[in-house]
Design a protein that fits this description.
Structural class: alpha+beta
Protein name: Glyoxalase family protein
Keywords: Lyase
CATH architecture of the largest domain: Roll
Organism: Listeria welshimeri serovar 6b (strain ATCC 35897 / DSM 20650 / CCUG 15529 / CIP 8149 / NCTC 11857 / SLCC 5334 / V8)
Shape: globular
GO molecular function, one term: lactoylglutathione lyase activity
Number of helices: 2
Distance between the termini: 23 Å
Enzyme class: lyase
Length: 126
């Protein structure tokens, strides 16, 4: 078995799509829209086949700030420590919050943690 995709609610679908395309090299499908339900979405495909669905619906508008029960983060592997460093600095330079500086974790991951435009945690790993 494998995870087919993970879904994420967003208030600004286009901004989030552009973020993941620019910094993580995903390919977005055409916009899906269900006007009856006030729902729109994109599937963002990573090179290895994993997909992230970003979704917006007119009645989904709130967000709890900080840590909450449920999904904590998404981890995206760059392949090398140098690429983790490079992407982390590019995101910082472009004004995104680095919530965790590059480091080697106790379980052996080399990573940083950044926040996407809506504050979702992304571990950049190798």
């Amino acid at each position: 078995m494998k995870i087919e995709h993970i879904a994420l609610w967003t208030t600004d679908l286009e901004k989030m799509k552009d973020f993941y395309v620019k910094y993580f090299g995903v390919t977005a499908n055409d916009l899906y829209e269900n006007k009856t339900k006030g729902f729109t979405s994109y599937f963002l495909s990573f090179e290895n086949g994993a997909r992230l669905e970003i979704m917006s619906r007119t009645d989904v508008t709130g967000k709890n700030l900080g840590e909450n029960l449920g999904w904590a983060h998404i981890a995206i592997s760059t392949g090398t420590k140098e690429m983790v460093d490079e992407l982390t600095e590019k995101l910082r330079k472009d004004g995104f919050k680095v919530a965790g500086e590059t480091r080697t974790t106790g379980d052996g991951y080399y990573e940083s943690v950044v926040l996407d435009p809506e504050g979702n945690r992304i571990e950049i790993t190798c």
